[in-house]
Amino acid sequence: MLRVIAYSLGTLAWVVIIAGVAVSIIVGIGAATVLTRIGFMVAGFMATAVYALLLLAASRLIYLLIDINDNLSQIVTLEKKKEEH
Q1: Cα 41–47–50 angle (5° rounding)?
Q2: pLDDT (mean) for 75-80
Q3: What is the mean pLDDT of the chain?
Q4: Closest Cα partner for 17 from 42, 37, 44, 36?
């Protein structure tokens, strides 16, 4: 279940990147002056980058925790086998 959530967060991050860049360009083109065009585009790109990085970081953190759990389970299994012999 956690792998599905992590994968979904990663996918959502890429969707946010694509949509954010597209919306930033569209809003930037529709702005009145050159300065506002640049401002809207830069602000849109920055907001997109921050939000996408947060989603990607959450996804990778979940994967990391899953891997830690798997590794700890393997260590416990190996230690139990050593105690039996």
Answers
A1: 140
A2: 94
A3: 95
A4: 44
Q: Which amino acid is at 65?
A: L
Which tokens go with 3? 């792998």
Tokens of 68: 């830690």
Residue type, 77: T
Tell me the Ramachandran region of residue 69: left when phi exceeds 0, alpha when psi lies from -120 to 50, beta otherwise. Answer: alpha
CB 17 within 8 A of CB 48: yes
Residue 32's CB is within 10 A of a number of other CB atoms, namely 7
Q: Is the pLDDT of residue 85 over 80?
A: no
The encoded tokens of residue 63 equal 């994967």
- Give the single-character DSSP code of 33: S
Instruction: Note whether 64 and 2 are within 8 A (CB).
Output: no
Task: Quick: pLDDT tens for 17-52.
Answer: 999 999 999 999 998 899 999 999 999 999 999 999
